[in-house]
Automatic annotation (TrEMBL), chains A, B:
Record keyword Oxidoreductase present: yes
Coiled coil: none
GO molecular function, one term: oxidoreductase activity, acting on the CH-CH group of donors, NAD or NADP as acceptor
Alphabetical UniProt keywords: Oxidoreductase
PANTHER family assigned: PROSTAGLANDIN REDUCTASE (PTHR43205), PROSTAGLANDIN REDUCTASE 1 (PTHR43205:SF7)
One Pfam family hit: ADH_N_2
All copies of domain Enoyl reductase (ER), residue ranges: 19-336
Organism: Deinococcus psychrotolerans
Name used for this protein in its record: NADP-dependent oxidoreductase
InterPro entries: ADH-like_C (IPR013149), ADH_N_2 (IPR041694), ER (IPR020843), GroES-like_sf (IPR011032), MDR_fam (IPR045010), NAD(P)-bd_dom_sf (IPR036291)
Region Disordered, residue ranges: 1-24
Length: 338, 338
């Protein structure tokens, strides 16, 4: 057997972004990969994921996951096809989900790859979105973290994003009294109500979030799923009914902030209203995966759950797709097609 | 039977305080009370309670309880002796706990008074403090709201106050790994560690709370019982271990604020650390009263639980006692003896 080499084109982190990331914070490199050893597989990536959490890992600060290393290839969710295998249980042609994204090819231990069976009617890309980490984030955050119950009025920010659009739709399917979303353009707002079945939505850029939420939810809200932080959280605290619950999932409005943001000035409302604010990260809820997969696959196949994607082509456009996602240019899951 | 009249001296709210309350916000009045009708009792108050929550009710804002009315007698916890009764089940000489404080005498429905039996070794005043609302606040907030478990490192602010001193001691008795308190004077700090059995304490006026907490709890905290809000909450967010829990009980640092306070700038830490912040009011936890009474009475009688009181004499000194309590002049429960 000849020592065949595979060329992988990869995106590295060249500099830690100050504020919003820019082109020069990334660099393209080429690397030669060898053949898989025992227990390894060589994967040709088909789809790459860019997600908001990645911005946090670009900073050199202590967090729940270590920061990305400078001058190393970025990592992230990816779906690919096994093109060579040294591992039992994985064969050439198998589709796998793994964490070695931001590159065209990956050589990795088979244990770090999960074989996925793609049901007809579903797309492999869905394992990066509605059937993957963002979908489970929505499912676990709404049902477990925020203790959603039928009859609740649910407000979700970043509602046109991968997580937010799933939150709103799952709330509707699970019997919410009303589902309200905020997003950053008139087109997204129309999409939420016309396509995704939100009862109401508003553009947070139009005027004060607190004012728009009060107008949209005059009887208050019971659950807030927070993807953005900042003035959205403050508005939710004002709008909460007694025993309201917030799932704190992300603070995308603050990820690019160079200065510490101001906190919600009305947090003391949590006392009298007896609110619960709970932060979470999806990896703590992997035990929900079987039920999540069953529920969400069913809704997708029946057409009750709509899955939006914004697809960008080409490994060299991954940084731009990532920066655009942070800026809200996506509707639904942002993926890179190779 | 002659229509005997009883003179009650009472404190009314004369003006809504702007910032810290002052003498002129209160007025003394005298009122003549008649004899109790059917189902009523006439009570001579022995002890009155002043509590932080009363400051909030002096503002004319929507809250979980309606605001105090201007030019009406204030209300609040009181223990008194029945001096005339028109009600079955309550007789002259009985001790009762009720909500018609800030006055020397009260004519009230028997249903609004709870007869208390005072065990030898316990004082009737305790029903305003460690055996009453502040004690239950500590018990419920620590054990239920913050889901305390043995081995937790517990931080409590306002630790020399009625609620805080109970929180720290109950945490110790229930098996905390370490109990840390903050208070506003060197004498209080010494009292916490020397008398109440706190493992460590600091004076929040000495330097930054965040810095002192980091020094006192280098391995982080698991539970924060928040009586004060503001920079204490921010410091706790920095210090929390993963899955930390905050019981939000009060924000005494903000009660006299004329401007909205700044919120915790680091609230987004709640996401990665998977923190739970939960506000509560004690009335939602009255179902715990039997177990609470059993536990706390036992600890008091065995000497394991220390009960501090600051006692001020005379109805006319009630406003001053209240203002002093807001300013931290008390150690333990502030009560007025009539």
């Amino acid at each position: 057997m000849t020592a065949q080499r595979t060329l992988s084109r990869e995106v590295q982190l060249a500099a830690r972004p100050q504020g919003a990331p820019k082109d020069s914070d990334f660099s393209m490199v080429e690397r030669e990969l060898g053949q898989p050893g025992a227990g390894e597989v060589l994967v040709r990536n088909l789809y790459l994921s860019v997600d908001p959490y990645m911005r946090g890992r670009m900073n050199d600060v202590k967090s729940y996951t270590p920061p990305f290393a400078l001058n190393q290839t970025m990592t992230g969710g990816a779906v690919g096809e096994v093109i060579a295998s040294g591992a039992d249980g994985l064969s050439v042609g198998d589709l796998v989900l793994h964490d070695q994204g931001w590159r065209t090819h990956a050589l990795l231990p088979a244990q770090a790859a999960r074989k996925v069976e793609v049901h007809s009617g579903l797309s492999p890309r869905m394992y990066l979105g509605i059937l993957g980490m963002p979908g489970l984030t929505a499912y676990a955050g709404l049902l477990e973290v925020a203790s959603f119950k039928p009859g609740d009025v649910v407000f979700v920010s970043g509602a046109a994003g991968a997580v937010g659009s799933a939150v709103g739709q799952i709330a509707r399917l699970k019997g919410a009294r009303e589902v309200i979303g905020s997003a950053g353009s008139a087109a997204k707002v129309a999409h939420l109500t016309n396509v995704l079945g939100f009862d109401a939505a508003f553009n947070y850029k139009d005027s004060s979030v607190a004012k728009q939420l009060r107008q949209t939810a005059p009887d208050g809200i019971d659950v807030y799923f927070d993807n953005v932080g900042g003035d959205h959280l403050e508005a939710a605290l004002f709008a909460f009914n007694p025993f309201g619950r917030a799932a704190l999932c992300g603070a995308i409005s603050q990820y690019n902030a160079a200065q510490p943001p101001s906190g919600p000035r009305n947090l003391a409302l949590a006392i009298g209203k007896q609110l619960t604010l709970r932060g979470f990260i999806v990896s703590s809820y992997s035990h929900l995966f079987p039920q999540f997969t069953k529920d969400v696959s069913g809704w997708l196949l029946s057409g009750e759950l709509h899955h939006d994607e914004t697809v960008v082509e080409g490994i060299e456009n991954t940084p731009e797709a990532f920066m655009g996602m942070l800026d809200g240019q996506n509707t639904g899951k942002m993926v890179i097609k190779l």
